[in-house]
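Deliverable D5.2: sample structural annotation.
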Amino acid sequence: MRTTAESTEPPAATALLRFATAGSVDDGKSTLVGRLLHDSTSVPSDQLEAVSRASRARGQETPDLALLTDGLRAEREQGITIDVAYRYFATPRRRFILADTPGHVQYTRNMVTGASTAELAVVLVDARNGVVEQTRRHAAVAALLRVPHVVLAVNKMDLVDYAEAAFATIADEFAGYATSLGVPEVTAVPISALAGDNVVTRSAHMDWYSGPTVLEHLETVPVTHDPTDDPARFPVQYVIRPRTAEHPDYRGYAGQLASGVLRVGDRVTVHPAGRSSTIEAIDALGQSVDVAWAPQSVTLRLADDLDISRGDLIAPADAPVRAGQDLAATVCHLHDRPLRPGDRVLLKHTTRTVKAIVKEIPTRLTLADLSQHPDPGELAANDIGRVVLRTAEPLAVDPYAASRRTGSFLLIDPADGSTLTAGMAREATGSP
């Protein structure tokens, strides 16, 4: 049974936006997120009442909206964000997954986690302080992670008398820095998260501003993407062999299509071995279909009986993946134990996990001025730098600049399974 013609075309738009908030300490990130949730009527009454009680216990007459996202007890007691707080909400125009990330320098790694899957980053700036080092740090992380859209929210405009000149100075400085980083798009919005100006509703105090509110921009920013624009990448997650009387010879390769489109009849290559075959059938939700597109989960059946297992990557024969055992990458170190040359690790890439060794750490990035510090000797927690890894087995990896899904990886401690480092591949080289 084939699906109808209408369902064989990839979706033209998405109703979901993933975004992250970031900024220096006390710039008002959690208050902004709380205001978004509150003013868009996305807060359940019992949760709002709990926040009101917590606010009264702290001597505040009105609810502290920041508490809607500050979930850990330590965060509520200190009035800061420590962990990444994820929230889900929706308006009639779009659904949202937001990540409220910490502002402290020692929690830069948490921003990497929150922004790694984001399509938009909201960077907050205190209108009284302007662009500070942590603002530049967060902008640099957003650029490294290839976040396509950045919103500069100039907060606390009520504390500078809603002055247009103060906003314009900050917006111009940030735009210049973002351009030097290669950030493709910056939208600047003057706001007061505490008072609600230009967050969900337009401000009566800034008639000189004619742009969108934060929510209006979030609802309308284009995040549509045609999956046919990217080469198809299919990491094999599971090999299905029922061996039943009904399906004695069935051999299917199940997984989620990471990018692109695959069709019945396409010539494909299985990496890293390099063997080729033709897609004989595609099964999705119990039906045979002619085409699959990212991010669908499907099962592929090939015309030839190949030795394929979990971790192999299926790609079009005319758009192959470069495989090798030497991997150059930019990484953010996440663990309190430093990463050093000679360290033996596990490298997890899509559905494949291989042994690896850190060959060298050529440079560490200084985010304040984007300079490279050569031969640092190690990467401490929150450090960003370049590394060269040698894997025990060939690995098929795309450059992160070409694919966030198949260009990213994790380094894992083989002793206890803890995550050490998040990586963004530059290229894979060396003989398989």
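Annotation notes: The CA atoms of residues 362 and 375 lie 5 Å apart. The longest strand covers residues 352-366.
The annotation will be released with the project's public dataset once the embargo ends.
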